[in-house]
Design a protein that fits this description.
Residues 27-169 form the tRNA/rRNA methyltransferase SpoU type domain. This protein has 181 residues and is of the alpha/beta class. The chain is built from seven helices and seven strands. A seven-stranded parallel β-sheet has the order 3-2-1-6-4-7-5, with helices on both faces. Helix 2 (36-48) runs parallel beside helix 3.
Length: 181
């Protein structure tokens, strides 16, 4: 009969080892995310899927804050992050540096996440927007591509933290498959 694996048996990296470990070629950008619990949850996801960095933009809260800490469970210590007031300036800077910028949004001309194939030779920045208004329209217009997570129920959107988890898992699954082929 199977048993749960203990935390010690998981052999996770220490914070120090995580800081120096190779990361996957992507970053997460949170723009005007209101919920500090969502921010903390995205930190945990970024740690789990070894993102290079998180950018917190606009009104998005930053560590240290008890609500972020509560859901991040220490990931604010392992994952590199930076605050930027101006998301559009950040997007322009990343594009000049050769990053692919992908807005995660429901918009005209969007590509279904299931059809997205990462370019293993380029780094990707995924932009997630406000819980109500979504990704800023200027960012959508400046993005190299717009990714849409397919949904089959009655609700029109997913929670930002859930969306980030889906996108990170999908990206790494496809990237790792591409690297082994």
């Amino acid at each position: 009969m199977p048993r749960k694996v203990s935390l010690d048996e998981l052999n996770r990296l220490s914070v120090e080892d995580f800081k120096t470990a190779d990361k996957y070629p992507y970053i997460l950008i949170l723009d005007n995310v209101r919920s500090l619990n969502n921010v903390g949850s995205v930190f945990r996801t970024a740690d789990a899927f070894r993102a290079e960095k998180i950018y917190l933009c606009g009104i998005t809260g930053t560590p240290p804050h008890r609500d972020i800490t509560k859901t991040a469970l220490g990931a604010t210590e392992s994952v590199d992050w930076e605050y930027r007031a101006d998301v559009v300036g950040l997007i322009e800077e990343l594009k000049l540096a050769g990053w692919i910028v992908a807005a995660v949004e429901q918009a005209e001309g969007s590509l279904g996440l299931q059809d997205f194939q990462p370019d293993s030779n380029k780094k990707t920045a995924f932009v997630f927007g406000n819980e109500v208004a979504g990704v800023n329209n200027t960012v959508v217009e400046k993005a190299d591509l717009i990714l849409e997570i397919p949904q089959y129920g009655t609700k029109h959107s997913l929670n930002i933290a859930v969306s980030a988890g889906i996108v990170c898992w999908d990206f790494l699954t496809k990237l790792n498959k591409n690297l082994t082929e």
